[in-house]
Design a protein that fits this description.
The protein is an alpha+beta fold. The protein contains 13 helices and 18 strands. The longest helix is centred in the N-terminal third of the chain and has 16 residues.
Length: 383
């Protein structure tokens, strides 16, 4: 009488993910024991082998951690990759990591494609997002972003073979944007911020989330508008917003906007991204309190986010070739305005002049220059 096959026990793996220990469960039989050959038929055969292995436990716990920690799609993909690097050996370039990432993302409902060349296997995921500095491929009128390139360091101009394999051709798009900050971004610090308005000096105590800055230090560069539309942290909502709200109490719309403009213009030190980071790095609102310098894009992000919460007035985002600004719809026409979709928006430049609180003025040096509108609040459906 043949003996029963031994049951593959459930094992636990602890992954340190953004300074948090995350526990995952898996069965060892799902892992490849032999190197995966980087050939068309071998890669397709290896995917089929995963179908018949006990992957469900790992997939279920990964998806549970998405809900528990509030992870977006990008962070989910990073957690998958970090988990597999641990299982296959830290720092390995084993194609098994990429192939299993590809498999698990497909099983999670995403449309994914695999590219390969020589000793490289790379995962590409269908996305609707506007992305920069990430290799993209077009296939069947769909855009696929390369999730592996950062780790592998492949030059952007190196061509790859596209595996003739679509495990989930009608799969959902993968999102790189953050609509809510993950739980692990909760660590905070306090900072006193001083600014002047109407001849008076003000100082506000700000609690900001350092975890957000750490998250975005190595984050893909996405559409410029997202940095303005990113949510305010609970720290800012519970510290800065009440303090500014108190200072605005009893003021007219114009005076409240002037106070907010005075805050974003004079509370921070200005430096261009290239001077600080060496390349373009837009910041979200919390990051202005984390870094010692900020530029026009960053001031706009803070102004836009605060104005939505404090004043809830319609706004548009104005993009010049080398400057970003904001205009706000007010009752009546105030100063220089932009006409857009039947409404007049008053210029409220969040960057300068530094010690000015005047609104209704076109940014200095940009009078008569062309611009485009790259976003608005509230959002409107495209016609």
């Amino acid at each position: 009488m043949a003996s029963a096959a031994p049951i593959d026990p459930v094992r636990e793996l602890v992954v340190n993910f953004y300074e948090q220990d995350i526990t995952l469960s898996y069965q060892e039989e799902m892992l490849f024991k032999q190197p995966v050959r980087i050939e068309e038929l071998a890669l397709r055969r290896a995917f089929d082998q995963l179908e018949n292995r006990p992957y469900q436990m790992l997939l279920a716990t990964l998806q549970a951690r998405v809900v528990e920690w509030g992870l977006n799609d990008w962070l989910y993909g990073q957690l998958i990759r970090q988990c597999l690097h641990r299982l296959y050996g830290a720092g390995t370039n084993d194609p098994a990591v990429e192939l299993t990432t590809y498999f698990l993302l497909a099983k999670s409902g995403f449309d994914v494609r695999l590219t390969y060349r020589s000793k490289l296997v790379q995962v590409n995921v269908y996305t609707l997002d506007v992305l920069y500095e990430i290799p993209l491929i077009q296939e069947n009128n769909r855009q696929y972003a390369n999730l592996s390139n950062k780790e592998k360091g492949t030059p952007l101009n190196n061509s790859m073979y596209l595996l003739d394999h679509r495990p989930n051709p009608t799969g959902k798009p993968f999102s790189f944007t953050v609509n809510q900050w993950p739980v692990f971004c909760a660590s905070t610090q306090q900072r006193m911020v001083a600014f002047a308005y109407a001849g008076e000096n003000h100082e506000v105590a700000v609690t900001y989330h350092t975890g957000i800055a750490r998250l975005l230090q190595d984050y893909p560069l996405v559409d410029e508008y997202w940095y303005l539309d990113a949510p305010l942290s609970n720290g800012l909502l519970q510290s800065l917003v009440p303090e500014l709200n108190e200072l605005m109490a009893g003021r007219s719309q114009v005076d409240a906007l002037a106070l907010l403009a005075a805050f974003t213009r004079s509370a921070f030190n200005y430096k261009d991204d290239k001077q600080v980071f060496g390349s373009n790095k837009p910041l979200v609102a919390d990051e202005l309190f984390f870094y010692p310098f900020s530029d026009c894009e960053d001031r706009c992000a803070l102004f836009f986010a605060l104005a939505k919460v404090l004043l809830d007035l319609p706004m548009i985002v104005i993009a010049y070739d080398d400057h970003l600004s904001i205009a706000v719809a007010l009752e009546g026409r105030v100063g220089n305005t932009v006409s857009y979709q039947g409404a007049n928006y008053t210029f409220c430049d969040p960057t300068g002049p530094k010690y000015s609180s005047e609104i209704g003025e076109i940014p200095q040096g940009y009078e008569g220059k062309s611009f485009e509108i790259i976003g608005q609040y509230p959002k409107r459906a495209k016609p």
